Amino acid sequence: MRCVIARFPFELTKGGVLESMKGIKPEPVTGESVIIGRRHYPLKQVGQVITRQDRRDFSTAEVLRAMTQLGFTCRAVPKTASPGILSPMQHASAMLGTPVTV
Hints:
Blueprint: E1 2-5, E2 8-11, H1 14-21, E3 33-36, E4 39-42, H2 43-51, H3 60-70, E5 73-75, H4 88-95
Antiparallel strand pairs: 1-2, 3-4, 3-5
């Protein structure tokens, strides 16, 4: 499949992406991700590996579009386990019995 990432055309196949990502350790996912095999990879990491370009040269939307068209499952930003993470001041205030509103 032909796709454009960072204004450059690439001929990508699902098998080619699988082969390129073989042996690559996934970085921690903090934003959107793609499932390749059984691993979750950040879109920027996948884009860098398959295009051999700097991550600043392309957007996650370009890689997301390409991976979706190839049939990979893409995920949105993961939800945090505890939505109410307190700052040190809020934590101390809560321990004193007077919680500070966020």
